[in-house]
Each structure stands twice: as C-alpha cells, then as structure tokens.
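Researcher: For the annotation table, I need structure tokens for 30S ribosomal protein S6--L-glutamate ligase. Please keep the output clean. Sequence:
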Amino acid sequence: MPSSAPPEPLQFGWEEWVGLPKLGVPALRAKVDTGARTSALHAFDIETFGPATRPKVRFTLHPIPGRDDLVIPCSAVIIDRRDVTSSNGESESRYVIETPLSVNGDIWPIEITLTNRHGMASRMLLGRQALKDHISIVATDRFLQPELSYDVYTSAKMRTEAPDRALRIAVLSREDNYSTRRLVEEGEKRGHTVEVVNTTRCYMAINAMAPEVHYDGKRLPRFDAVIPRIGASITPYGAAILRQFETIGTYCVNGSAGITASRDKLHAHQIMARAKIGMPNTAFAASPRDTGNIIGLVGTAPLIVKLLESTQGKGVVLAETRKAAESVIDAFRGLKANFLVQDFVKEAAGEDIRCLVIGGKVVASMKRTGAEGDFRSNLHRGGSAQSVRITKEERDTALRAARAFNLNMAGVDLLRAEKGPKVLEVNSSPGFEGIEGSTGKNIVGKLYETIEARVRPTPIRKRKGV
C-alpha cells in the first residue's frame, strides 16, 4: 500500500487563532508556550459530576477578554488530575481533559488543563504536547495561521452549530414514580447526569451577589437545566426554590410564575379568559348570599362544583339538579373552602383529551374515558386512555393555552364541545405514564431534545472595536 503523504509543515507565531469545536468555542486567541508541557484553558465554575467510574467536569468560559456577557458552558470527560506549577512558582491541582484543536482546517486531539486565567491577556496557553512534529515556532511573529474573528459569537451560527454535550440536570421531585424514573433513565441514556432533588430539603441563601440553593448542608452545584415536578401540596415553597434557580440563571423547563398560575384554578381561568381561550362557563363568589346568582351565571343544572385546590379529580363534584348544586355549595362554604362553579359539558360524555405540549409543539394526545358511572376521566381514578388524532382547532387551542402560562411543558385537558374545544385545565407537571403507554411515543425523549436545544449558548451583540 502506498504510504500516506506527510502533513504539510505549519508555522506558529507566539500567538495564534485556534478553535475548540467539541467545546463550542469556534474562535480563540492562544499564546504558544513551548516551556509548558500541557495546554491550559481559562475556565470557571469548575465542578465534577457523573459516575465515579467515568467522571465528567462541567465548566464555563469567557472566550473574549472583557466580554463577560458571553458565557459558554462546557462539559468533558476527565482523563487526569495533575499538579501544575505556574511561571510564578505557584502549584495548583487541575483537571485534565482531551478535546480536538482546530487550526486552519487541521484538527487533532490535545490535552488541556482547566484553570482560571481571568487576569491573563490570553484565554488559552498552547503547550508542547499540543504542537505536532510538523509545527515549527517563529517566536518573533504572531498570527502566521489564518486569523479568525470574534464576530462568530454574534451570529445565530453560535447556537445552531454548538456541539452536543453531557448535561447536568436536576429533577425537583419528592416521589419515586414512573415520571421521575423515566426522566432519570432517558437522560442517562442520552449521556447526561440526572439528579433527583427533594424539593422540601432544599433551602436558599438569598443575597444580591451570590444567590445559592443548598441541599442537605451543602450548596447545590450549577445545573444546566432544572425539570420541576413539584407536588400541588408544596406549590408555594417549590415555586420559591424554582425562583432561586431562575435568579442564578439556570434554565428551568417551566418557570415559577407559570406553575403558580396554573395551580390556582381561579387565576388560571382568568388568564385563559384574557387570552380568549374557550373554556366552560365559570363563576366564583365569596359571599353565601350569592349562591343563586353564581348558579345563574353559569347556566342550568347539571353543574360542576370544583375546589380551587383540587388535583387528579379530587374535590370535583357533579351536581345534577339546582338543589343539589346549592347543597354542595353550602357544604363547601361550611368548610371554608374556595371553589368554582362550572357549566357541565354534556356532549363530552365523560371523555376528555389530554394534549401534551413540549417546546411549543403538541407531541402527543390521548383520549381519556372515565370509569363506568364516573363523569371524571382521570386515570388516577380508574379511567382508561387511548391515542387519538386531534383537529387543527384542538391543536391550536392547546398551544395557545400552554403559551398563555409561558409553559415549555404542559398537559392541556380539552373537552370536545358543540361550539369547539373547551379547556378544562392546564397542568404544569403532567405525568408521562398514561400518555407514553397509550401512544407508544418516547415523550421524555422529546423533552430532552427541547432541553438540549435551549441550553446552547446565546449569541451576543457586537461591539465596536471587538
């Protein structure tokens, strides 16, 4: 076999433009230092994660000196940890990773140590190990290879061409159920590290300079994303924890405001009314003198009387006559409970449609049918489910409902009424078991696709002179 041609000789000056494509860093100015064995990269918020048998490191960097608004999160497998002595004699233990280096179309793997070089003029140091045999150094010159530009960080290319990387993800959940287990299983299958964090065991350090979330006596690490699975009974505290993650800058699949609004049924209906989203006629009153008027506002019996705090069909009563409605309302008032009165959509016949919206798309839908003799279609109450095709109007309604609460993931429950789809509820923590089982779709995989796309770096605005 003919031997391959030797590589073309390269000349490096004392400073060159390079790229680190697997880290999502297309342009970087690096100082060439043949006195150093291993290359060094500016990194901060350096934290390890993943299994002990194959640990990874998550870090962030500012590739442009003076532009701290450009933050690139990175992750890589750790190949070593070494004590490195700097030129001023100080020793530091550093994580070592391996990643490809790109120069003028030529790519080869190099080892890099991670350290904070914030005070250094160059964000990267190229050591001897990174310099191949066909590279010669001209110490009196710089930029002998083609110059790159920081303009790449101001373009959409920055996000679209960012590489896939291992993420560190937190699932806020107190329950070991199907949905939580699927989030862990699917995330790890995609190469991510997924940690289940008990919401009620979190606590917060609230200050202007360094807001933190603590857990079991330690500060929680920086996560790439948080998936909230907050139970209805702890909504206020769970939303407070989520707001803390938002303050830190962590991407949250669903925001605290959307979860809080969706859990307050009165507020939720007001939001949908403002967005002109179809729903059953609804009325609310605090005074017992208004019982007759509140029934009249909704319509004639049968009526639905629903506790504001109801979940999974609990606290929802069908009053088949006006007298029954008055009795249920009086009973709820005697318990000092807050409730809504709604029109009963007879034509739905005990069925509703759950549309699962992820990332602004309806990714699956199922028809739920209540158990025999039960007007509620909740699967937790013995209902059954099957995959169903929805109309364009139903799809648009589900999308508008999720958008009204600014939810990236939502279960939108619809009734098929004579005058078009009516939204019963928008669930900010929908379960996955029923809809994955009835449709056969990998719904959790769709969620991770959305997370992976959203955590990519964001382009920055171009400044003059950069």
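Researcher: And a one-line annotation?
Model: The chain has a mean pLDDT of 87.
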